[in-house]
Design a protein that fits this description.
Elements lengths: L1 E4 L3 E4 L18 E5 L2 E5 L3 E6 L5 E7 L2
Antiparallel strand pairs: 1-2, 3-4, 4-5, 5-6
Length: about 60
């Protein structure tokens, strides 16, 4: 996730990945959205929820498989 500033440009705020094993490499993040202070990312295998206030700390996940 990046922040944007007219003076400093793009600033990396943090990363979110769904990779925990070789199998997950075939399921990259396809969609993301945020609601209030939570970032939701979706791949074919899961949804991951991260806290936008605390450096994208993972809060929860839901596995589809």
């Amino acid at each position: 996730m990046y922040g944007v500033n007219l003076k400093t440009g793009f600033i990396l705020k943090g990363t979110v990945t769904h990779y925990s094993s070789y199998h997950d490499l075939q399921n990259p993040v396809k969609r993301s959205l945020y609601i209030e202070d939570t970032l939701y990312t979706r791949s074919d295998s899961k949804i991951v929820m991260c806290d936008l206030i605390n450096s994208l700390e993972q809060m929860n996940e839901i596995d589809f498989q």
